[in-house]
Amino acid sequence: MPLVTSKEMFEKAYSGGYAIGAFNVNNMEIVQGITEAAKELEAPLILQVSKGARAYANHTYLMKLVEAAIIETGLPIVLHLDHGDSFETCKSCIDGGFTSVMIDASSKPFEENIAITRKVVEYAHDRGVVVEAELGTLAGIEDEVKVSAEDSSYTRPEEVEEFVSRTGCDSLAIAIGTSHGAYKFKPGTKPQLRFDVLEEVSKRLPGFPIVLHGSSSVPQDLVAKVNKYGGAMPGAIGVPEDQLRHAASLSVCKINIDSDLRLAMTATIREFMALHPEKFDPREYLKPARAAIKEVVAHKIVNVLGCDHKI
Ligand code: G3H
Ligand code: 13P
Ligand code: ZN
Fold this sequence. Notes:
It is a single chain. With about 300 residues, the chain is of the alpha/beta class. The chain has one domain: TIM Barrel. The protein contains 12 helices and 10 strands. It has an 8-stranded parallel beta barrel with strand order 1-2-3-4-5-8-9-10, surrounded by 10 helices. The chain has a two-stranded antiparallel ribbon with strand order 6-7. Strand 3, helix 5 and strand 4 form a beta-alpha-beta unit. Helix 9 runs parallel beside helix 11.
């Protein structure tokens, strides 16, 4: 099974009322943990690579790790560029074998966002690659760029039809209250996604796949474990899983999760180091860390995305 695009996955997800998980990968243990869970649950899968991941692990290493996962699991896997910041980054991933790219020009003015997205779409479509674009600005941290809650803005539904028809993008990431990182909402507040915005967008784009970034739920048991073993994560709050499940039953076909995997890995390694201070073989702590990632991903597939047994 070669790498696939998300076209058919999203069509089935849209009509089936579920979403595909898009998990960020940075090293072998993360790839293995995610793909082992997806294989056991027969779940279609998007593995995504950020600019930072490519800088950390190198394009070719990541590409080969994902190819190895396809050989080992036989799963249909999409290899996606997360938050492509320029035409050049997208082109490099398209030329380098990715089957999907995101061009994130959401911080640019509307006309500029359209122009750069259109340019990426033309290049990608000529080569059989699909494109995700973004309208609206999420709060949080991505690729070391911090967007404060005041500078974030919900997607304006009245702009989506023009944006999609003029760019030709294949899916659209929108801002409805999710944000990147582990500190999404103020402690003590009740997180609530803007389903009114999602519904208005979906009404204007019938059948069109919507994407949610910043969708980690920041499990409190993992935060507690990090803090128990020497960490100091204050007031980390994520998106409630029932709200994500509801979004997946509507037009949301792709849900991005990274921070929860980081949290699972870090909590597990911190615990191991604290309980076994005499050990120093990386395999001994990376093995339970990989298992913890697998557990989180399995939970998301069944309880949040609803994409188990959908191959
Ligand atoms: O949305 C951002 C993702 O979590 C990737 O993060 O840019 O630190 O690799 P990164
Ligand atoms: P989280 O930080 O909520 O995991 O979001 C990840 C993401 O949106 C990657 O693009
Ligand atoms: Zn994102």
